[in-house]
Write a structure and sequence with these properties.
Radius of gyration: 19 Å
CATH topology of the largest domain: Rossmann fold
CATH architecture of the largest domain: 3-Layer(aba) Sandwich
Distance between the termini: 43 Å
CATH class of the largest domain: Alpha Beta
Helix content: 25-40%
Structural class: alpha/beta
Number of helices: 10
Number of domains: 2
Length: 298
């Protein structure tokens, strides 16, 4: 018997991949606000403003989902820094409301947080103890995590690494931007002192569905098998996609005027989610798969 899965922010990058890679047994309904073009083709969807509490409650009552994947967020750190009250309304208040509705309807909640909750000063970031975010986006995500755990202790929270891959026309990510720039002969700046556990969209979807499949509770890191610098990732991408003329400018964070704090090292321990059966992939494996199934670089 199939279960109903409601995905908020289904028209975003991760939402597109979750709809594309959903295993059998899930009847998916996606919500979107203004970006219908980002939905995976033929995904049953409804337009929803998550800052409208009454509308959210009506949607939850009408759909009666067995599980909810809450992806929707104001996820641009610079935007959150410049618009703290507005972004908090979506990142924290709407998340709290959704958790309350899930508790009322007894729906399983999986909330996607961010690796930005970590301060970037540790060699390896583990789920415990409580992290210390240094930018507004990370602070809002951590507060949302804490409120979710208070309202719905059986919820699952995923601290997701920076993602990459190819998706629908209404979505974008740094790898798509880089490949487009290189094919136009433009240069790309990549930091050598910014370490990330890069995660492909398809692996992110696999991790999310593994958590759902296991009925897991608590906080989990979700990232790629090996953490590398953005500069190393750029070089690897240009090699895998056979773009020898790719222009990559190697810089440190200090050489660029950033609009918000960016943690230096977001290497994440994945032992906890691996215990559920999730198998993280190496960056070169993910890029090779993308190279095989896209037209970039050909």
């Amino acid at each position: 018997m199939s279960k109903k899965l409601l995905i908020t922010g289904a028209s975003g990058f991760l939402g597109w991949h979750l709809c594309r890679h959903a295993p059998d047994g899930w009847n998916i309904v996606g919500t979107y606000h203004g970006n219908a073009s980002g939905l995976f083709p033929k995904t049953p969807a409804l337009q929803l403003d998550l800052q409208d509490k009454d509308a959210m409650w009506q949607a939850m009552k009408s759909q009666k989902p067995d599980a909810v994947l809450h992806l929707a967020a104001a996820s641009n750190p610079a935007h959150c820094e410049a618009n703290k009250a507005e972004s908090r309304e979506l990142n924290v208040e709407a998340t709290m409301n959704l958790a309350e509705f899930c508790a009322e309807l007894r729906s399983k909640l999986v909330f996607t947080s961010s690796s930005q909750v970590y301060d970037g000063l540790q060699a390896l970031n583990e789920e415990a103890p409580t992290p210390s975010p240094q930018n507004e986006y990370g602070k809002q995500k951590l507060e949302a995590e804490q409120r979710v755990q208070e309202i719905l202790p059986e919820a699952a929270i995923l601290r997701v690494a920076v993602m990459f891959g190819m998706a629908g026309p209404g979505t974008n990510n740094f790898l798509q931007q880089w490949l487009s720039a290189w094919q136009q002969g433009k240069e790309v700046t990549a930091f050598y002192d910014e370490i990330r556990s890069f995660l492909s969209g398809r692996s992110a979807a696999a991790g999310v569905f593994k958590v759902l499949e296991k009925g897991a509770e608590g906080v989990f890191n979700l990232g790629g098998a090996s953490a590398i610098s953005r500069h190393a990732f750029a070089e690897l991408a240009s090699t895998v996609f056979e773009l020898p003329a790719a222009k990559i400018i190697r810089k440190s964070q200090q050489e660029v005027q950033l609009t918000s704090f960016r943690p230096a090292n977001l290497t994440m321990s994945l032992e906890k989610i691996k215990g559920l059966g999730f198998q993280p992939a190496e960056p070169w494996e993910e890029l090779a798969w993308l190279r095989k199934y896209t037209s970039y670089g050909s």
